[in-house]
Amino acid sequence: MSEMNSQTVLQLKALAKNLGLRGYSRLRKAELIEMIEESTNDDVRRTSKDDVQRPIDLISFGGEVLKPMNVVVEERVGGALLDEPIPENEVVNKQKIILKPTKYTKPTKATKKTKKIDKTVEWGKQKVEDWGKWLKEKNIKVLFVLRCNMSKTNPAEDEVKLDLAYFLSPVEAIFQETDREDVYQTCVEKMIESLETFIRNGSNWVVDSVAGLDLHTVEYNPLKGSSYIKLPPDIAKKNAIVNMKNEDDQCFKWCVTRALNPVGKNHADRVTKILKEHAKKLVWTGIEFPMEVKDIHRFEKMNPGITVNVYMYDYELKTLRVSKFKISNTHIDLLFITEGEKTHYCLIKSMSRLISSQLSKAKNKKYICRRCLNYFGTQKLLDIHSELCEKHEAVREKVPQPETSIIFKNYYKKVDVPFVIYADFESIIKPLHSSQPYPEKCYTEKKQLHIPVSFCYYIKCSFDDTHSKKVVYTAKSEDEDLAQIFVNMLEKEVKAIHKDYPPKKMIFTNNDVEIFKNATCCWLCEKEFTEKDKKVRDHCHYTGKFRGAAHNSCNLKNRRPRFTPVIFHNLANYDAHLFIKNLGVTEGDIDCIPNNEEKYISFTKKIVVDTFFDEKKNENVDVKRELRFIDSFKFMASKLEDLVKNLVKKDNTLENTGKYHTGEKLELLKRKGEFPYEWFDSYHKLDETELPPSEKWFSSLSGHGITEEGSCHSHKVWKTFEMKTFRDYLKLYNESDVLLLADVFEKFRKVCKKKTSKG
């Protein structure tokens, strides 16, 4: 009990999830502990009608790795969790066991923390082999939990915070023929990956010691299909199933064979001599009947071109098994049904009829995705969806119940921000050959030094595109501080916007009078006017143009924005590191939304753009505006190259790029350019008069070099734009990246607004 009390609510919820419990999401800590304890006291716990799991044992390996000890463990009572913390280096079982782990010497090398984990992992591996000997006759599911003592130093207050963190493996099913070593290795890799993610996102947390390695096991009765079972009435009436009337345990074989050899409506469910002859054409070597769901992949491997999905019906159709192979033309859908302890496969001959009423009230035929059970009105739409669906794990979308969704209310945010800045840096990449300074400590190996050598920003004006402008700046010498120049120029731009575009009074024409008079709904929220929230005139404060009739409350919220977004693609991982320190050189508050100590989701810099005298306070007051730095990758998590390809495929017009380039030049820029990042390791290479050879374009980040097509494209760009030096190529590459980002993100904004607008 005391061990669970030390866990956080999130940790308890994670444990509840992996135990297969339901209804834990809204429980408090005490309720979660009670639920978990009750679940472990049950003799039998059911996760579904067909999947019975019985608690067997909790095994704990490890303890403080540097202090192994011998422990005698008493018999476990009733299968419940122990009231006291599990002793170090123990196995809990229904018999007394003494473990004698080998002595572990404290390491002195840099990998000390890692070796603590590695030692526990290797030791745990031996214990898993021992555990496998007395569980070898059982089918089980396992969950490993790595417990680590973590520490975090707060330099400001000179204190160290300690906490116990839990890193869970995925739940793995183990059968008699399963290679337990492979399963253990998979679980370890997932736990280590979880640990690394925690450290990376945990704001200075480090592993102090390993508290233990726990193993949770439950008995698992896998699903398998056998002899004939009568269909439930609500399924039978849909006329969507062929229920094979077999008296043996080979219903899977007869369903698959019938799917490949369909007959008329009459007697399709009979196992005939002809059907048995057809079955011999398939490979069944090594297949045991009744067929378990987990063994279907073996059948697919031996019969290439055939894919099988399995579903179950519990008031609605649910996916039980999705083929790991690409859905083929010879695809078979099976329904798994139960009656008491009996189980049976049936052939689904019409997925549309079976699931139609579950998806929609419409009577027309539906084209259903076999992976996620989403449906579409035409085969063409399904094919488009399938291309994307096959790249991801099979997940079915479930529409929220009415009145449970969050409703968009900030209608004033539908109005475009008047100015948006798109920006990007290019750098010289100098290789570093550093040695480890402190062998006894953890450290980061520095491999490259990135020195900004060029930047480009594009100011996009939403109300008048003639006010949009592009700036490209390339270093004039190796000593220039490009990051500071960039920050200074942005601050000047914000001050100029405030000065050059003062608020304008409304221009209200006779036509506008009629529009306002006849309006019955607010143009912002699209709701009707009321006595409490009356109709007023709304106008653009930059142009003075009348925009429409609005609620008084909507109009008051629709003010001139006090910030200018600055958008980079992959800001958090790259560009921010180049200039964020320079924001603090000049006066102005800096705020951020951190992801961890090194990465920021977004950050802002306040800039004084004007001052005025406040007579009431009898003092000068600063007028401030914000530079708000945003990462477009957080909205569109793909490489810019892929985003541009997708945009050009759907909409061949590049509005912003097309302002500066036309004809053949524009056609060449309708894809992201190529750049020899690691070859460009010196400022002097800006003066090179030709592009480097193909072998110099290799990137260790991507792991590959330039393709023949990419090389031809780069040389064609050089020739078409009449470039003299690599400086020209760098400037165009930098400029095109920014303009393409503007095209992609502006399109993204328009699509989002269109999709979320009413109606």
UniProtKB/TrEMBL annotation:
GO biological process, one term: DNA-templated transcription termination
SUPFAM superfamilies reported for this sequence: His-Me finger endonucleases, Ribonuclease H-like
Coiled-coil intervals, chain numbering: none
Residues in Rho termination factor-like N-terminal domain copies: 3-43
Domain of life of the native organism: Eukaryota
Protein name according to UniProt: Rho termination factor-like N-terminal domain-containing protein
Lineage: Eukaryota, Metazoa, Cnidaria, Anthozoa, Hexacorallia
